UniProtKB/TrEMBL annotation:
Catalyzes the attachment of tyrosine to tRNA(Tyr) in a two-step reaction: tyrosine is first activated by ATP to form Tyr-AMP and then transferred to the acceptor end of tRNA(Tyr). Homodimer. Keywords: Aminoacyl-tRNA synthetase, ATP-binding, Cytoplasm, Ligase, Nucleotide-binding, Protein biosynthesis, RNA-binding. ATP binds at residue 249. GO terms for molecular function: ATP binding; RNA binding; tyrosine-tRNA ligase activity. This is Tyrosine--tRNA ligase. It catalyses: tRNA(Tyr) + L-tyrosine + ATP = L-tyrosyl-tRNA(Tyr) + AMP + diphosphate + H(+). It comes from the Bacteria. A motif ('KMSKS' region) lies at residues 246-250. GO terms for biological process: tyrosyl-tRNA aminoacylation. PROSITE patterns: AA_TRNA_LIGASE_I, S4. SUPFAM superfamilies: Alpha-L RNA-binding motif, Nucleotidylyl transferase. Residues 354-413 form the RNA-binding S4 domain.
Length: 415
C-alpha cells in the first residue's frame, strides 16, 4: 500500500531517479519559495513513470505591459519547465481583470473592459513569446468557465472559504485596520483565481511573492474539489541596474526586452560584478554547472567583465539574434575605447558661437544646461574625441561629433 502525505494525498514512496533530482534542482534554482518540494518531487517521479507531463499554470491579468527583464524572471522559469517536457498554461485573466486584484496595493485597481483586456493580452503574449516557446504553450482564458457561473455557483464557491482566512491577506488586513474601504468583489478575487487552478487541474502554479496568498487559496480549493493540491513556486523580484530598487520603468533602472540590441547590451554591462550572478541565476538558460564554472573562473583570476559579456550576449541573442549580439559587442568595445560608433544621430543647430552647456542641452545629450556643465567638470564631454574641460567654451560653427558619457553621441552641424 502506498504511503500518503496526510496533507495532500500524494504518494511519497516513488523512487527519485537522477533525472528527477536534477529537475527539482533546475526548478528550485533562483526561486523564492517552493511549496512543497517533497510533493513536487513525487509529482515529477509519477510523471516520469507514466509519461504524462505536469500541468504548470501561470495566471496573468494583462494591464498593457511593456515587458522588461524583471517581468521575464517568472517567464524564464516557465520556459525551463517547458524544456523539461511539461505543459505550460498561459492563463489570461480576462474575467478576473475586470474585477481588479488589489495584491500589494492599498487601493482597488481600476476595472478593465473586455476589449482592453483582449488587446493587452495579445501584447503581453507576443512579448512573452520572446521567452516562451509559443508552440508548446497552452493559452487559456478564465472567462471560459467564469462567465458560465450562476449566482448559485458563485455562492457555493464562496462557501468553501472563510472570511477569517481571506482577511489574513496582508493588504486586506491593513486596509481594514486603516478604515479604508474593501469592496465585496475584491474578496471574491482570490477565490476566482483559485478556482482557475481547479478548472485547469493545475499541478503547480507560479507567481511573484506578492501572489503567494492567492496561490495558496487555489491549493486549498483543489482539496475541497477532491483534487491533488498544486505545488506553489514563487519567484523573487529582480533588482534593476542600480542594484538597489526592483527593476522598474518608472525608476529608469530597467532593461526593456524590445529595446535596441546595442542599448540592451550596454545596460546589462553596466550592472555590478556582484549583481551579475543574480542576473545569471534568474535570467540565464545556462546550466547550474556552467554558471558554477564561471564563478570558479572569476575566483581564479578571470576578468568578470568577460563573464558579463557572455551574459549580455545571451540576453541580446534571446531577444534579437546572435548577429545582433555580436554587433552590440563590437559597438560596446568601440565606445569603451573612446571610438565613434557608426549609428550616430545627426542634427543641425543654429546660434554659433554657442556655449557648451547650451549646445549639449539643445542637442538632447543632457537634460539641462546645469547637467551639461557638471558633465564637463567630470570630464565626460568630448568633441571629435578631444576632452572638453572648459565649461565656458564657446563652440564655433562647423560639423563635429559630440560625446557625453560612454553611450551618448551626436553629429552636430552648428551654423
Amino acid at each position: 500500500m502506498n504511503k500518503k502525505h496526510e496533507s495532500s494525498g500524494i504518494s511519497d514512496d516513488l523512487p527519485l531517479s537522477s533525472a528527477v533530482k536534477e529537475a527539482v534542482d533546475v526548478i528550485k534554482r533562483g526561486t523564492e519559495e517552493l511549496l512543497v518540494d517533497t510533493e513536487l518531487a513525487q509529482k515529477l517521479a509519477r510523471s516520469e513513470k507514466t509519461g504524462k507531463p505536469l500541468r504548470i499554470k501561470l495566471g496573468l491579468d494583462p494591464t498593457a505591459p511593456d515587458l522588461h527583464l524583471g517581468h521575464t524572471v517568472v517567464l524564464n522559469k516557465m520556459r525551463q519547465l517547458q524544456d523539461l517536457g511539461h505543459t505550460v498554461i498561459f492563463l489570461i485573466g480576462d474575467f478576473t481583470s475586470m474585477i481588479g486584484d488589489p495584491s500589494g496595493r492599498n487601493v482597488t485597481r481600476p476595472e478593465l473592459t473586455r476589449e482592453q483586456v483582449k488587446e493587452n493580452a495579445m501584447t503581453y503574449f507576443n512579448q512573452a513569446s520572446l521567452v516562451l516557446d509559443p508552440g508548446r504553450t497552452e493559452i487559456r482564458y478564465n472567462s471560459e468557465w467564469s462567465d458560465k457561473m450562476t449566482a448559485r455557483d458563485m455562492i457555493q464557491l464562496a462557501s468553501r472559504y472563510t472570511l477569517a482566512r481571506i482577511m489574513e491577506r496582508e493588504d486586506f488586513s491593513t486596509r481594514f485596520k486603516n478604515g479604508s474601504p474593501i469592496a465585496i468583489h475584491e474578496l471574491l478575487y482570490p477565490l476566482m483565481q483559485g478556482y482557475d487552478s481547479v478548472m485547469l487541474e493545475s499541478d503547480m502554479e507560479l507567481g511573484g511573492t506578492d501572489q503567494k496568498f492567492n496561490l495558496l487559496v487555489g491549493r486549498e480549493l483543489q482539496r475541497g474539489y477532491n483534487q491533488e493540491p498544486q505545488c506553489i513556486l514563487t519567484m523573487p523580484l529582480l533588482e534593476g541596474l542600480d542594484g538597489i530598487e526592483k527593476m522598474s520603468k518608472s525608476k529608469g533602472n530597467y532593461v526593456g526586452i524590445t529595446e535596441p540590441a546595442n542599448t540592451m547590451f550596454a545596460k546589462v554591462m553596466s550592472i555590478s560584478d556582484e549583481m551579475m550572478w543574480k542576473y545569471y541565476d534568474l535570467l540565464s538558460f545556462r546550466s547550474l554547472s556552467d554558471i558554477g564554472n564561471l564563478r570558479d573562473a572569476v575566483k581564479n583570476g578571470r576578468n568578470p567583465r568577460d563573464v558579463k559579456v557572455e551574459l549580455a550576449q545571451e540576453i541580446v541573442t534571446r531577444f534579437h539574434s546572435k548577429a545582433a549580439a555580436e554587433s552590440a559587442l563590437e559597438d560596446f568595445m568601440l565606445r569603451a575605447r573612446g571610438g565613434i560608433p557608426d549609428d550616430v544621430p545627426e542634427l543641425s543647430l543654429s546660434g554659433a558661437p554657442m556655449g557648451i552647456g547650451q549646445l549639449l542641452r539643445q542637442a538632447g545629450l543632457c537634460a539641462s544646461t546645469s547637467e551639461a556643465l557638471r558633465m564637463v567638470d567630470q570630464g565626460g564631454v568630448r568633441i571629435d574625441s578631444e576632452a572638453v574641460s572648459d565649461r565656458g567654451l564657446k563652440v564655433e560653427a562647423g560639423t563635429f561629433v559630440v560625446q557625453v558619457g560612454k553611450r551618448k553621441f551626436a553629429r552636430i552641424t552648428l551654423n
